[in-house]
Amino acid sequence: MTKAIARPRLPALVAPDSFKGTMAADTVARAIAKGLRRAAFESIELPLADGGEGTAQVLLSALGGRWISARVSDPLGRPREASFALLADDRTAVVEVAAAAGLPLLAPAERDPLRASSRGVGELIAAAVRTGAQRVLVAAGGSATVDGGAGALAALEEHAVDCELVVLCDVRTSWERAARTYGPQKGARPEHLPVLEKRLDELAERAPRDPRGEPYTGAAGGLAGALWSWYGARLVAGAPYVLDSVGFDQHLRACWFVITGEGKLDQQTLEGKVVAEVATRARQRGVACHAICGACALSAFDLRLLDLQGVATAGTPEDLARAARQLVEREHPCNGLDRGAPSA
Prior knowledge:
Elements: E1 3-7, E2 12-14, H1 25-38, E3 43-45, H2 55-63, E4 65-73, E5 79-87, E6 92-96, H3 97-101, H4 119-130, E7 135-139, H5 150-158, E8 164-169, H6 178-182, H7 193-206, H8 223-231, E9 234-237, H9 238-245, H10 248-253, E10 257-260, E11 264-265, H11 274-284, E12 288-293, E13 295-296, H12 300-306, E14 310-313, H13 317-331, E15 338-343
Parallel strand pairs: 2-3, 2-10, 6-7, 7-8, 8-9, 10-12, 11-13, 12-14
Antiparallel strand pairs: 1-15, 4-5, 5-6
């Protein structure tokens, strides 16, 4: 007579992005893990980011380091305190564009990319270099600007900044598409778009390297392209960079399944956001992948492209916990121990 051998079950990997504007990635991960515990599942919490808001916190939590504050200009030139992360190696800093030139820093009536400047981002990079940083990771997402990085370039020149720059981009948009693609969401009216496009064209004509046609150069309203052209910055896709930095693949090898998520699944998700990157890596390793999001605007066909085993929606921490428990009880009903092959 044979009997099954009980073996300990592998944990789940909880690896979400933030729910933009509502919950940070670590809050989302904590809530999902809580739901899994209610279903008797252990998990590893691994908050992620794609180069947008929250990237500095994700890298700081995974790699260690400290926050440092500096006085910088906001998008309209007003002084404000902003922080950057100096990682544990004391030579790498993480600067978020959103901390100095982010759209949330402006009231809706103040949002005007004809006036908004990226100067504060240059000032924050300069502050990071003054603390000893030799390499600065610039998280490009969430900007209020379409100034082609002109403001940041002026500040970097004034402070004679000399460091390695790596821009973590959350979009692949090229320079010449930045104004029309992102201007409206930053407050530009239709009549402003030709003005913004002309501004970027003129700046590109003066650039040491022409950023037009290059992937990622339109990120942060052209700031990425300016750093690439004038300072030789390396432009990289933010999600893969962050996943590699926090050891996602190693965690994936040691898990049973993964739950990811973001505020909204939409067409941008398919263009290299966290959920798409997590789902791709999980599929390559034969690991089931689920997503919990605030809303889903993808068609059934697009969801099949992501190859997610399950999708649920939730808008609060308690909803996330409930969705995680329901998902795991439906898709992975085995409790306690996973039953291995029978022995003789």
